[in-house]
Fold this protein.
Amino acid sequence: MVTGSSHAGVVVGDLLLPGSVPGADVQSVQCRGFSKRVPTPSRRHELPSEYLTLIVGLGDPLVLVDTQGRNRSVTSFVSGLQHQFAVTERVGHQHGVHIELPALAGYTLFGLPIAELSDQLVDLPAVLGTGTAELVERLASAGTWGDRFAVLRTTLVRQMARGPQPTPAVAWVWQRLRATHGSARIEQLVHSTGVSHRHLAARFREEVGMTPKAFARVLRFEHSLAMMRKDGASLAAVAEAAGYYDQSHLNRDFRVLAGASPRAFLRDRSTSSKTR
């Protein structure tokens, strides 16, 4: 099933894919169809997220900006979980489909250790296989975004049917961390699974893409950013609500994950949105 809505030139849909955790038959995965003309090069920080990013490009490429000057152009790709921000540049006709893919869904979909994708941007054929070219062609020829989403869902469901299933202990810890925005005590979660910390950390990294501790850090960051954008609360209050030791802890994580202090990041984003 595919559902969707449209706003600001972007079509947003929900793809119902097979469930990734015990007891869940399906999971809803957000999918966005985009088509925009970017007349001059525009750069932005891509922030760490709990999701893998899957892009099927139908227009001009995206440029991954390397700090060493080794920029790379990509069209259809998968980006794994990130331990820090990345910089991308867009210009020309940006057109395609963007999926926010839960890590465990990625593990089943691609059938490989998701840690191999962490902090990487990998061309889609390398992980999705020889059917990628046919998928791109079918998406390009589809008449509507709804048709494109349906084609994409059919491809992903077929691929996931052949993939490995997550380890139950990993799936349970992953669920609990997501449900608590990364604030649950990892030691207690590991104890509840009945497996060793070393074993769980290794399996978690293979199936999710990073250790439970690193994943919890990303979740806290995302939660704190959402609170700052929505509530306008003080940074001290945000830090406490998000499970940081103190405001300094929040500031340190922001500098690594967003490339700026919380105040500077929000100020820059606000200025950018007003000038578009």
Notes: The CA atoms of residues 142 and 148 lie 6 Å apart. Strands lie at 2-7, 10-18, 26-46, 51-57, 62-65, 72-74, 77-79, 86-102, 121-123.
